[in-house]
Amino acid sequence: MSLSELTRNAFQSGITARKWIGLCKLFISKNLAHSGAHNIEIDISNSVLVLFRDYPGDPALQAYLRQAIQDGVLSLPIFLTTFLAAAQSPELHNPATLDMLCRVILDHHYASGMPTIGSLVTYGEPTTRLLNTIQNAMALLRTAYNLPISHFHQLTTSASELLILLLSCVADMSQISTTQAMVHFADASELLQNVRLSPGVRQVLEAFAFSLSLLLGDDAKVAREAQFMHTSQLTSGKGDTILGASSETDIVTCSLVLNHLIFNRAGDFGSGDGRHVVAVLVALLRWSSWTPATFYSQLIISALTCLAQSIIPTGPTRASSIWRAFTIGRLPHLLALFQETAQSEGMAEADWHTALQFALPAILRRTDLLEKVDSVGQAGGSDAASEKSMMPPNFTSEFLYQLLHVGLVEQAIVTTINPNLPNDFHPRVASEANEAGLDLPGYFEVKLSPDASPEDIEVLLYRTWRDPCCHAAFAEVVVKRFTSSTKTVDTETLSLVCKMLCTHEMALDLLSLHTKITDLVAHALAFVEDYDCETVGDPQTAVSHLGDVVLFAEATIARFNLARYSFTIGDRKLNAEFLRTAGLRHRVDELKEEDQSAFNAWNKALFDPGSEGIEDTILRATRPKVLLRIAPTLFSHAISQCMERKMDKEVLNNGISYFLGPLLNWTLAGVIKFLLCEIQRRGYSAPVHLEVLKTLLTSPSCPPAVLALSAPNTLRTFPDPIPQHSQRGLGTFDLKPIRQAARQALGLPEEEQQNQLVMPTSNVHWSDQAHQLVTSTLTAARGGRAAALDVDRCLLLSPPTKFLTTFFAELSLAATMGMEIPRRLATFVLTMPRTPRSPPLLPIFLHLVLPSLVASADGLPPTEQTIRVEFLVAVISSSLTSALHLEWAMLTTCGEERYVLGQSVTSMARRLAGDLRRRGSGPSAGMIMQRLTAIQPFVANFPTFAAEV
Predict the structure, then answer these.
(1) Which of these, 558, 533, 559, 560, lies nearest to 546 by C-alpha position?
(2) 15, 182, 352, 826: which is deepest, by most CB within 10 A?
């Protein structure tokens, strides 16, 4: 369910505005833990606006919006921009609707008693974004004059009033590009010439147009010449900035990179992969041409921005806790590793200490971010009531302590910033360790002993999670214990660690920030593959412990989407395919020799009325992989026997009961997968299969990891409401316990609590979701917020070529309003190393997508063609330069001579130069080639372009 569905249901049920906003707050706190406050406000606004399509001019909907703004859940600036964007849709072109929405904004503005900047427009609003809002306001005014006149709603008056207020916020337009000025001048001129405006708005709009004309010159020809001059400066080498960040502030690139580290934290080039992260940072430093102080300040401020944006009005979330853990607990360690490598850039270590010293004042001046970060606590469980009310330490104190701890700054620098830090701030867990006479690793070694109770472990994990200063030590101890126990075949110790990581999500989150989870999974797979029950004294206990290792591997691979990952330990390759295929049922007569022998023995032990149970000899003779493979076949055969009345139901249930004990319950994920498939195959007319499934899913002995693995497929198999044709097969069988077990495993509310809010699912097709992710990222970047784009998710939703085509269509449109943000987005998408499940995008773009973009530019009008060519030149030069720096950093930092972007950058550049030369008959291809060869730093990196001319 979404906020839009909740709002629609509440409105149609006659729920009051005050009660609706209460339901929204409850929904946000329970279901939107990963969303930032800005996105939530947009969702709330849109959830009401979309209803005006079906209920034009409804005062109840207007009351919803007034209540949301009054309650602080929806800020006036965000509603303003959301409304003006939505007002362009013909479905909202109703005088009553548009006037009511304008009045909501105007009334709240006047009631606030605040100036326009601070009420309608946020402080520090970028001029480009403000002008986009004004452009939408002009479009609204144009619409108002085109709609029928209403005697009850003065839309033209309200729209004029709103535009006057927004135009009063425009101060300095010297920073906007000529292209932007042209677009806004054309809009204002068209409105002045074609609409009979009221004197008040006409006067203000004429002044606005005059200011733009001063930037443009006397006519469009001058404007076009100015655009050509700007392009020539970039391509002639006067603006080498086309190759890199070209700005002392680039929150877009830094936030994209940092979000990538979090999205992909479990594998290569994620937060836990220190060496490769350093290579990415070194490449970013070289590409940006920043000074060390600027690099540090931009990276840390971007992390702070991501953390602040992850905090929602109702309090801390899992996302905000992960960002706090990363920013305090992991980022300083990554910067320390980076600094060691960066010295190879020709700067002494002392210079880097000085750089961070100079960066800290700029960071600490961001009080807007620091105050928001310190305004909330952390998400997570608690060990005591006093802990629940305990706020985390001041962010600045924790961060300075970490910088000092990892050796990035000297004590004298910290004392200058906060003289009382040594006396006032002592990390909690480190203090407890010190009182016990232990260092942090020793403290965790003791606390994580096999004798510790589950309750003690839970308390320890909660306290550890709330103290990012101890995260690195905790991760070090857990990884050491995990890897050493696999090498020494210490099944009990490994079982305890795996069970802890499966049971407590926060423990695995913490670990994923500091180490490559894929390495742990590889050790677990090797342990399962090499394990030999014949050498253990008590096989019953050993197999139970082994099951915890299997569940850890299954759950972790599913959670971090590692199914296509190639797991290795040194030169050894591990195959996790046996986990993915565990749900396949094989006919008994199709089983291979080893599996056939094991099946016969286990079938007799489990489902023979005369069986005396599972003997140790069976356990010793069966490899874990074999047991996983035959488990679905054992169930299939037993159920068939029962359906054919060759086996009593009591015997079937008795055999199933063995699978609900710790000895075999780790095999149930594959069994449940088989049962769901078989139920669907039989058209839901499978009473015995349904009863067995219900028994497994509702049993208290079913491992939480199995429930979590099975829950999504379970809810897909049994949707609510169930289709009529499926209901006929089910008959009177009650699906409610099965669905409830699945919902509980996913942390969803009980169905009774949400029945009144059930609405049809969103009609947005999955293939359009990638486009929505791109537009959301572009909107965030334009608004000066931290940008995040999960490219791997986009590539799951859309094929690479289609995604890149859609992506560059959006960027090309955005480039007409300014090229810096689209260029940075394009450079990130094309040059950030992808996970194994996603193909490298730079060669696909250069050799498959770019030719069509160049060809399409030939048919554009001259001004648009110039902008398109300039944008493509910026993307090509920036991306190839960034890729070259990454390739070099991989070699110098990691000692790896491999092409993480699919091909050698030099070979990609050589092929591109040849392609452009062959297409030189086309005007766009020739212009691109000419301008690339005029950028001296680019030609110095890629001489093939000079050679091809």
Answers:
(1) 533
(2) 826
